[in-house]
Amino acid sequence: MADEYRGSDLLMLMLRRWWVISLSIALGIGISILALLVTPSTFTATATQLVKGIPGEGAGANYQAAQFAESRARSYPTFIASTTVREGVRADLGPEFTDIRLSETLSASNPDGTPLVKVKATGKSAEEARDLANSAARHLARFITDIETVEGTSPVVVEIAVQAGLPAYSSFPSKSVFLALGASMGAALGIVAVLAKGAMANRRGQLPPDGIRAAAPADENASGGEVSRRAEPRRSEAPARHVRGTALQRHDGTPVPSDSNMNS
What we know:
Layout: H1 7-16, H2 18-38, E1 43-53, H3 61-73, H4 83-93, H5 99-105, E2 106-109, E3 116-123, H6 126-148, E4 156-162, H7 175-203, H8 259-263
Antiparallel strand pairs: 1-3, 1-4, 2-3
């Protein structure tokens, strides 16, 4: 029959073997710290551009210019992959920023309903991520102005509203996530080890060191839902004693009538 534990027994078992669970948690945290040390860090920086429409003349000119800038901003993130932008970044930061590397580390997006373009860059260091984002945003603004210019006039102006700053923390790996994951896995393995040890001790017919015992099965001979009990032995009455020269006596000391007394 499978071992059965009450909830209180399980809690007591884990409390008595708390050191096993604590050791497993410490081991999990140690593995997480080791993983953080060997995993390369990645930093992320973002520069924000503002697209402004040049208003014309007449009523509602400013509103129309704002709507025009918002609609045009939707198409600008795709230009981050242009050859002109990538060549400008290489001229600023060095030839090691190949097209393949820039395609993996540079991206741009347009938040819905805004005339903004966000240029995001990832790097092996905080400085590299910052410089890459600012360089790409600067060359992207120039490229947009050039392609929008018709007969020497551009209907929009692209400015860098917020330059990328130096990121304070790495975007990957996250220290808090790694440590929490290691502690959780360590605690889970410790609890499993404690319960497995207790189950093995009960299957061998032994009590665990902490005195927790598995629930005993009911007597197979029980009937009517009640456990049978052994009948207590009855105390047998002592036989009459006979001593030579004396009358027969019962166990309580009273004489037993003899045949002669009965005949008289």
